[in-house]
């Protein structure tokens, strides 16, 4: 019998004692998927026979040092290539059959991980809410009236519902962090270029990051470390240039009171206050910063010329098949048609001004602690007001890739109504290792369970 939530440590322990095998795990995972009432999580699954063959091969060779993810089931967002299933990017008319795995998927499978299938998303990774898909809207694992967050919606719910141990998402504006927060998970957004995007259908090619969603920081960070490697085939891939956070006297930037916008959600505001208190108790110096340059920079992603990069990714398809796209996604992407090269340069100039202003704030802090999302909405509310409410969700996430930062979203507790909230640690590029250590220290004492199981044991001796 598998635990409700799947973790790397938990599965490894069961394998080591002989209580289960990869073949048993595949069968249990497929049973959980078939029994789920949320039928919008997955876009495509590998066949049972295909998975059983792969699990049997793993069992025949046994665990090995070069297969640290031996027998670990995972999912991939359906804008990431796997040579065995079509890629739709949540648009059936766009579907294609990849000939090889994405670089990141190849790395994970070489490490022994078992890809179960491809998960739902906001179409073309355009959205933070999880409702913009013809395959349906995956729901928050705590209350099906509420959104799962997007665009990595299916990936978050697959992990949060205990169907897989981890899942790959992508993150351009917060798509790997917001769904983590809404499903009581950890979302690791690496430094841009640290994980190769070869085999990823781009949203904004210059900003996209493949991300990891998991129940705890240790799992998500281990998967990130396995995926990361310089890839000469990806023009945006970058070699690792590790940077350190201070080991003592950490300065933690937080929102000044005037910048704390929660759109009336006092419960999330309280969770943020409690997170700040937790950081202070850990010995961090709390520094209120001016969030304005980060907030104003964030507006460039959807209100500036970076929308044109979304059009560049699928221009021919959007112009000839626009009628087959989600209406909101079509409006956003084709809305960039009027933008010019002049607009692009003006946006680039504005970004450098915001970067300079943000750097002034970085001189006063080592890490920035933010609410992952200011609130959460019901599916009905999101469908009634899809653009404005989606914009609200990105208030504290949209700037991160524009300003070349690393980030990790972690659970921060629960509202009185039982819905989870999250906070995000943001640091300069290439602070990924130290940021993970900090996030794990913060998350460990919280013991909020993981995913839908609030009683799950995250930490093992």
What does this protein structure show overall?
The protein is an alpha/beta fold. It folds into 2 domains: about 220 residues, Amidase signature (AS) enzymes (Alpha-Beta Complex), CATH 3.90.1300; about 190 residues, Amidase signature (AS) enzymes (Alpha-Beta Complex). It is about 40% helix and about 15% strand. It has 17 helices and 11 strands. α9 packs antiparallel against α13 and α11 packs across α12. The longest helix is centred in the last third of the chain and has 22 residues.
Keywords:
461 residues; alpha/beta; Amidase signature (AS) enzymes; 2 domains; 17 helices; 38% helix
Give a short synopsis of this structure.
This protein has an 11-stranded mixed beta sheet with strand order 1-3-2-4-6-5-10-11-9-7-8, with helices on both faces.
Topology:
Blueprint: H1 8-17, H2 22-35, E1 42-45, H3 48-61, E2 73-77, H4 103-110, E3 114-119, H5 153-160, E4 166-171, H6 178-182, E5 186-189, E6 209-214, H7 217-227, E7 251-255, H8 266-281, E8 285-289, H9 292-298, H10 300-303, H11 306-321, H12 327-334, H13 341-362, E9 367-371, H14 379-384, H15 386-393, H16 399-402, E10 405-414, E11 420-428, H17 432-443
Parallel strand pairs: 2-3, 2-4, 7-8, 7-9
Antiparallel strand pairs: 1-3, 4-6, 5-6, 5-10, 9-11, 10-11
Helix pairs in contact: 2-3, 9-13, 11-12
